[in-house]
Amino acid sequence: MEELGFSLVAVSRFWRTPAVPEGSGPDYVNACCKMRSGLQFDEILATLHKVESEFGRQRDARWASRGLDLDLLAVEERVCPDLDTWTRWRNLPIESQMREAPEELILPHPRLQDRGFVLIPLADIAPLWRHPVSGMSVMEMLAALPEAEKAAIEPL
């Protein structure tokens, strides 16, 4: 990643997590990292997709099983492209989420606050980061999740 314009700041532990939605594939290994880059948001996302492709990722179906999935979760306290668009994607019903993908980058990730497999690794490296829309810290979002959402996530 350094060769592609990123500087690594922190890396979480690695966590074994069940695939989401349930039954959609084998368990995953999830982690979070904090990086710095002088790239623009769209360039960051394009670079992440390029790395995925180099590791064999094909984007044929939404939420399909994949060997590598690199997500841009947040950039500081930015909401992109705007609050209305973010809110639309945040409130999209699950059936629509499975069919639709945004054409533009949505930040922060619209469902990061709902996913233990994101929040648990994120808590390793940024427990006090606050969601720019809800104002909740990573630890507060994690505490708000049902225990069942967190129970199957185990450190490696």
What does this structure look like?
The protein is of the alpha+beta class. The chain has one domain: Alpha-Beta Plaits (2-Layer Sandwich), CATH 3.30.70. Helices cover 32% and strands 12% of the residues. It has 6 helices and 5 strands; from the N terminus they run ββββααααααβ. Strands 3-2-5 form a 3-stranded antiparallel β-sheet. It has a two-stranded antiparallel ribbon with strand order 1-4. Helix 4 runs antiparallel to helix 5. The longest helix is centred in the first third of the chain and has 14 residues.
Strand proportion, as a percent range, falls in 5-15%
How many discrete domains? 1
Q: What would you give as the CATH superfamily?
A: 7,8-Dihydro-6-hydroxymethylpterin-pyrophosphokinase HPPK
Q: What is the SS-derived class?
A: alpha+beta
CATH class: Alpha Beta
* SSE run: EEEEHHHHHHE
Assign the CATH architecture: 2-Layer Sandwich
Shape: globular
List the helices and strands and how they pair.
Blueprint: E1 6-11, E2 15-17, E3 28-30, E4 33-37, H1 41-54, H2 83-90, H3 94-99, H4 116-125, H5 138-144, H6 147-151, E5 154-155
Antiparallel strand pairs: 1-4, 2-3, 2-5
Helix pairs in contact: 4-5
Name some characteristics of this structure:
Hppk; 5 strands; kinase; alpha+beta; folate biosynthesis; two-stranded antiparallel sheet; 6 helices; three-stranded antiparallel sheet; 156 residues
